Amino acid sequence: MTHILSSWKGKVVAATGGVAVASGLVIGGMVATSGDTGTPKTATPVSADNASTAAMPGFRLPFPCGQKWRGDSTNSLAHTKYEIDFNQGPHLSNVDEGRTVVAAAAGTVIRSTRHVNQSGYGNHVVVQHSGGYQSWYAHLKYRSVKVGQKVKSGTKIGAVGRTTKPSRKGMTAHLHYEVRKNGQYPPVAAYFSGKRFPYPAPAPGVTLTACKGGSTPPASPVAKICGSGFKQIDSHALGKVGRIYLGYNKSNKNNCVITVKGKGKKVKMSALLQVKGGKAKTDTGNFTQYAGPVRSSANNKCVKWGGYIGSTKWYSGWSHCG
Fold first, then answer.
1. Are 105 and 92 in contact (CB under 8 A)?
2. 165 has which bridge partners?
3. 3-state secondary structure of 197
């Protein structure tokens, strides 16, 4: 959506050899990362069109369940085709300002800051998820989370706003949303509730409903299987056959991994947990419903977690380092 009537929305514009370019575009083999202040990163050969979703967490729409929001991916020259602007109220109005923004998936907050002059992102939050994926939320009115904070899917992280560079006057309230892989720009295609966002989406946008039309996400089995005091901090789908869960108990600093499927015939399953510096622990066998729980103390240490059901498997890299 064109939220600044006289200039490119939310992007730093710089002159290169007399030609104006937008930050975030590939220039001479380098990527100027929009919203970052560090050295530009070398462009990777991975195509955002063909980015694998095998390790992608189960992202949801970044708004409270049941709410309907329109996503627009094409009406700004500053956008790549995979950046999305969300609005609920009328196009080019400020009625959405202050409305709740939530984490699209479980993860750890790696950035919660306001760029005053570095970029057009203004108040923005970045959440690191499993599989190397990050979700970005920009132009927030305010931020509700801190760096290092672990969030669940649906945790409030801020509110829709219109914060940007002082020179970008005229922006109207909206949420700018991206998914990046391994921190690289440009973003990759976004998925919500297992469905790919329908690119391209010109203004006023494509309407989606948070949590698949307002249905309540299924209750986590972590506390029931891992034990009292454990809460889910992450999960990853194993295709359509089941899901792996990572739990944490604040009182004893233990992590717990379980691999869960629907009830039925016994199937070979496995759950794995490895604390950095230690050996991997697994529970493997033919089970009716779940493998695990596998528990280990992981106070201030990174963990690897994963497992399989039949031939469908997934394992994380080092993550949840806290």
1. no
2. none
3. coil
